Known about the structure:
The protein is of the alpha+beta class. It has helices at residues 5-23, 41-56, 102-115, 158-162, 176-183; strands spanning 62-69, 72-83, 88-89, 136-141, 147-150, 202-203. The strands form 2 sheets. The chain has a 3-stranded antiparallel sheet. A 3-stranded mixed sheet has the order 5-4-6, with helices on one face.
Amino acid sequence: xxxxxxxxxxxxxxxxxxxxxVTITAADRPSATPESVGMSSTRLARLDAAxxxxxxxxxxxxxxxAVARRGQVVYQKAFGVANxxxxxxxxxxxxxxxxSMTKPIASVGLLTLYEEGKFRLTDPLDxxxxxxxxxxxxxxxxxxxxxxxxxxxxxxxxxDAFRHTLGLASGLGQSPVDAMYREAxxxxxxxxxxxxxxxxxxxxxxxx
Length: 208
């Protein structure tokens, strides 16, 4: 099978970013000037305004950002606050609770199978997960307030699962699809495992 370098790169970049965020700290990585490892101080400085804008817009209360190359940290800064109530400033050694750390591990495993030619990124997801054979897209509500569902314009693919464009909800948000998930008992996957029999998976209207 011919593998597309563009697709591989697009998938590897977010994985590398996640792993870098987990492993890089000022304490256990040497620092260096950006130019000494082939990066630009001028371009890295653009991050300051962009990240501070996210804080000012209220999208995030605070963040710690690190950039490393060749095992050396070339940029590490804290922005915003660590606690909204006390307004304690964020520090580069602030502690965070991390979620979804199985995703990079699962992604590496899938990419290994991809390189071995076991599947294509454009393969329909229901080829491997038959529960996705009967997906429907939420299209709003009718005059009586009942949800209207329609078949998607195409089948969801493995690539959609990789890049978070399946249109699935978590069951924890405020969207109509989230509410439908909760009504079906899917708001808490631990308490309500995903059913294995025939059923309908509902996706958001913006599913691609």
